[in-house]
Amino acid sequence: MRLLLPTPLLLLGLCAAAQPAAAQLGLTRDNGLLGQAVTYRLSGQPFELFGLLPSFNAGPTPLALIDPADPRLLAVGLDLLSLASFGALDAAGQGSVSYPLPANPNLQGLGLYAQAFTLPAALTLVDDLSAPNAFALAASKSAVEVLGDLPLQVAAGHSVTTLADGRVLIAGGSVADALGVSQPGDKLILFRPSDQSFSLSGATLSHPRSAHTATRLADGRVLFLGGSDELGAARNTGDLYDPASDTLTPIAPMAVPRVGHTATLLADGRVFVAGGITAINGADPIASINSITNNTQRFSPALGTWSPAPNLPLPRAGHAASRLADGRVLLSGGLEVASLFGIPLPSFSRDCRAYQPSNNTLQDLPDFTGNRTLHAQLTLSDGRVVVAGGADGNLLTQTFFSLSSVFVFNPASNSWSAGGSLLQSRAFHGLHELEGGQVLCVGGLASVDVISLSGSAAQGLEFAPLSIASWTQPSSLQKVRAGLQSTVIDGGDRVLLIGAPADPLGGLAVGDLSAETVQR
After folding, report:
1. How large is the average pLDDT for residues 452-457?
2. Average pLDDT of 497-505?
3. Which pLDDT score is estimated for 503?
4. Which residues sit opposite 427 in a β-bridge?
5. pLDDT higher than threshold 90 for residue 341
6. Residue 46 confidence (pLDDT) above 90
7. 268 to 56, 218, 302, 326: CA distances (angstroms)
8. How far apart are the first and last CA of the chain?
9. Are 308 and 336 in contact, with CB atoms under 8 Å apart?
């Protein structure tokens, strides 16, 4: 609801502060796509008077201009003063304000800032103050750079995890120095979608690690496992990060070091860990592949202990794993290592099977068509599982190619069916379900070297309905990001992309601290 108020009272409403630490007034937003509307939702005390001020800049604006007794600063400018909205929270302490957004391509990438406030207060004109809210305007199915900059350059091998409170945790990975040289790092970075800002966590990983797994647990903590260290060796260590206290605790080591493994949260709160490379040999990639393990384990966060799970039929790495609605874990594809007269025979796999936590066993499943590794796998909201893209080739000649084929698994019948093929072949990419019933395929490598995990980046954004019948490619990323990782934010409205862009020669764009979002 918007009320037109006299100018003195309107100025009163501008007394919103930039310091949100003590704020009791909540401010969140929904949607915000160009051509639609952004809805701001407020929460506070019942029947409080509130105001909301939008702006195209982040201030600061001294409140002393309005109230000499108030030393605080506005976190928004006064350029959209005429669009300030006022009203009263309802009996439940809730309120909302919506603004239609024009479908104007010239607004793409422009920051829209907002801050809410209540009034009056005993000693100042303004009482409670919300944290600022901000995001980059963008059209549907497009990519745009976020407003904030990363505190350090993250190139590849990092993890991105959406936390229970909506923030995103970015951990480890190859961190580029001033010369563009990358080494595994130990930093944790937090991204706040409400204002698209980044900050360094007060915690650090117990060891630098890259190409590790990150699993959000049922209690909100995040489990980091394995990965490679600064010398390129595989790690058997793990850490637990607690976002409530911003602290990190090392855990008991795994049975073997792991890179290229999977770590899947089970319905009972434990984590099922499968496969992986145990010894990385940069001078002999085939030796690294031959070190792949068939070991699986379960980790209990409640007890902090590991217990054995059934060995895979063959050693496996670079596979995919997803928990099904019935509690099973679907394992598919990857690199497998058979043996003939004691001689290891590595190959790409089409093998699929399910881990059954209730009796700690593995179940045979029908294979999908075609061998693949480094593919994307996603459990949809209706229970089906989509497998898209990946890589195949010849390990002996070390010639590889990316794939465009897509398959859909039905857990009710334990059967596979073909989906619409991707418009661009890709491996090592992201696959996400968005609000409104659509699936996004983003990032990855269009040409791929499975040994070095390098290649040319796939730039197009591909969308499909939940039927997975066909894909469209309406736009592309803003920048080439070969090592990007992605995660859903804003309740499914957007996907956050983290990974350093490349320069025109294919190296890292040193000093570029940007990130992007893709809108539903």
Report:
1. 91
2. 90
3. 85
4. 445
5. no
6. yes
7. 47, 9, 11, 12
8. 27
9. no
Encoded tokens for 423: 């418009």
Altogether, the residues listed in the chain come to a count of 520
Q: Nearest 5°: phi and psi at 182?
A: -110, 140
CA distance 134 to 139: 16
Beta strands per DSSP E along 320-414? 320-323, 329-332, 335-340, 343-348, 352-356, 361-365, 376-379, 385-388, 391-394, 399-402, 406-410
pLDDT at residue 10, rounded to an integer: 38
| Closest to 322 in 3D by CA, of 285, 255, 274 | 274
Q: C-alpha distances in angstroms, 211 versus 131, 190, 453? A: 35, 19, 11
Q: What is the DSSP string of 195-254?
A: TTEEEEEEEE-SS--BS-EEEE-TTS-EEEE--B-TTS-B---EEEEETTTTEEEE-PPP
Q: Are strands 143-145 and 73-74 parallel, antiparallel or unpaired?
A: unpaired
Q: Which token pair is 361?
A: 């066993």
**What tens digit of pLDDT does each residue of 61-80 get?**
888 888 889 889 989 999 99
Tens of pLDDT along 170-179?
999 987 666 6
User: Which residue, 29, 40, 115, is CA-closest to 72?
Assistant: 115
Residue 306 to residues 252, 301, 354, 359, Cα–Cα distance (Å): 8, 9, 20, 16
CB-count burial class (<10 Å; 0-12, 13-18, 19+) for 60 = middle
CA dist 429 and 389 (Å) reads 8
Q: Convert the pLDDT of each residue in 79-105 to its tens digit.
A: 999 999 999 999 999 999 999 999 999
d(CA 401, CA 473): 21
Residue carrying structure tokens 């499914």: 492
According to the model, what pLDDT value does residue 180 have?
Answer: 62
Tokens of 7: 């100018």
- Rounded to whole angstroms, how far apart are CA atoms 155 and 150? 11
- DSSP, residue by residue, 397-450: TTEEEEB--EEEEETTTTEEEE-PPPSS-BBS-EEEEETTTEEEEE--BSS-BT
- Report residue 131 as tokens: 């944290």
Copy the structure tokens of residue 57.
Answer: 């800049």
From CA 446, how far away is CA 400, in angstroms rounded? Answer: 11
Enter the pTM of the model.
0.93
Which tokens go with 253?
A: 């080591």
- Spatial distance between the Cα atoms of 319 and 352, rounded to a whole number of angstroms: 10
Strand, coil or helix: 300: strand
Average the pLDDT over 392-413 and give the result.
96
Of 519, 515, 520, the C-alpha closest to 196 is 515
